Amino acid sequence: MNQPTPEQPADIVARLRATFRTGRTKPVEWRTTQLRRLREMLTEHGTDLADALHADLGKSATEAYRTEIDFVIREIDHTLDHLEDWLRIESAPVPAHLGADATAWTQYDPLGVVLVIAPWNYPAQLLLAPVVGALASGNAVVVKPSEMAPATSAVLARLMPAFLDTEAFAVVEGGIPETTALLAERFDHIFYTGNGAVGRIVMRAAAEHLTPVTLELGGKSPAFVDRDADLSVVADRLARGKFLNAGQTCVAPDYVLTDPETAAALEPLFRKSVEAVYGSDASASGEYGRIVNERHFDRLSGLLDSGRVVVGGASDRTTKYIAPTVLADVDPASPVMQEEIFGPILPIVTVPDLDRAIDFINDRDKPLALYVFTASQDTRDRLAAETSSGGLGYGLPLAHLTVSDLPFGGVGASGMGNYHGRYSIETFSHRKAVLDKPLG
Predict the structure, then answer these.
(1) What is the mean pLDDT of the chain?
(2) Residue 384: CA atoms inside 13 Å, Cβ hemisphere, count?
(3) Closest-CA residue to 196 (of 179, 180, 163, 219)
(4) Count of CB atoms within 10 A of residue 151's CB?
(5) What CA–CA distance (Å, rounded) separates 387 from 183?
(6) Which residues are CB-contacts of 70 (< 8 A; sequence separation ≥ 6)?
(7) In what order do the strands lie in the sheet with 213-216?
């Protein structure tokens, strides 16, 4: 029996655009129905997704639910609770020369047909969380899961069309050829999460149609540790934040920046913290993940000799395992400091004081996040005022990502645009200005 010919990207976009033009996606009722259906998918088939995430990344069920499945459920619930308020028309004052009978306001209009391209490191969360905003804004949506997380991609491609309105929603699986074909089409917005190299490709393709883009990229997010901080707490929080998902997190602390004395004091504390979280052998821990593939394993294992090993250092290519590793005496010119690590390696870089730390951060691309551990308000204020980053976290890494009322996004090389909560509505909508001057 002949297999049906897969629908081509051009046909998918044309079909969804025809649906959008009917007005089908615009009523709030349609939007909330889609969100509730997406929530049903996650609650009824969370185990399917958790199993797929384990197959792709070695994620434990606990981590899969906490960082991906339940994360998106919370985002859906927050959006359902506030959507009508976010969409309210907002009046604007009218200058006197237009007359007392003139009124003005702004309203949110859906953009049309949007494309969401997801990465492999959180392949469910980082596809579904933008989709929440795109559907809540009244758009038709095409999603492209990551081919580097094939089990998760297959589950999403099977489940999402079963729960969402397929007249206004489509999943396209595949690799570079399929993504390239999608990018050749005219969308009304493209939302891409991934690395800067592909981000540039996305932006060039979007420029052909003057399509706006949101780029959620990455970079080397520093963790500045002051000598007055409680170092036991610092080591514990950095270890948990860095080695979550085997370090494959865009907002993970990429390196520690501190003075030499504090660096020396942190070394035994990191050993203690890593063992407290993952035991004496992380390869035997059910809570520690694996590197996504051999190519990334080889890249990361090549960085292990960039400094003196304080913790970890072990690796096994057969199982794609790299131990939670902390490196000391790291030269800023070493390979581990030349690119985003995106793995379970945490270098400690020393600087003499706060002034040099600020210079060190500012001499490099603007990071997706900056984490600050200090008891000094003056130090907090200086780092906030004198550096630029997508997000700023005092005392705790990664957590700002979980606050739905905070915008999440980068700046400069770490990205453009943001989302979560009402900021997703702003990203996936056009805020239209309206003036009404009665005739006569």
Answers:
(1) 97
(2) 11
(3) 219
(4) 17
(5) 34
(6) none
(7) 169-171, 140-144, 113-117, 189-193, 213-216, 415-416
The CA distance from 50 to 159, in Å, is 14
Instruction: Name the nearest CA neighbour of 353 among 220, 232, 226.
Output: 226
CB atoms within 10 A of CB 218: 30
Query: What's the predicted TM-score (pTM) here?
Result: 0.96
Read off the pLDDT of residues 176-201 as tens digits, 9 standing for 90 and up: 999 999 999 999 999 999 999 999 99
Contact 130, 157 (CB under 8 A): no
- Quick one: tokens of 213? 């883009």
Helix (H, G, I), strand (E, B) or coil at 105: strand
Amino acid symbol at 388: S
Residue 170, both tokens = 């489509």
Rama region for 29: left / alpha / beta (φ>0; ψ in -120 to 50; rest): alpha
**Residue 269 one-letter amino acid:** L
- The end-to-end CA distance of the chain, in Å, is 70
Region of residue 164 (left: phi > 0; alpha: psi -120 to 50; beta: else): beta
Per-residue pLDDT tens digits for 268-303:
999 999 999 999 999 999 999 999 999 999 999 999
How far apart (Å, rounded) are the C-alpha atoms in residues 57 and 59? 5
Pair of tokens at residue 270: 């990191």
Sequential DSSP letters for 187-206: -SEEEEES-HHHHHHHHHHH
Q: Catalytic residue positions? A: 216, 250
Other residues' Cβ atoms within 10 Å of the Cβ of residue 174: 16
Q: What is the DSSP string of 305-324?
A: TSSEEEE---EETTTTEE--
* DSSP, res 97: G
Is the Cβ–Cβ distance between 191 and 130 less than 8 Å?
yes
Q: What is the dihedral of CA 373, 374, 377, 380, to 10 degrees?
A: -40
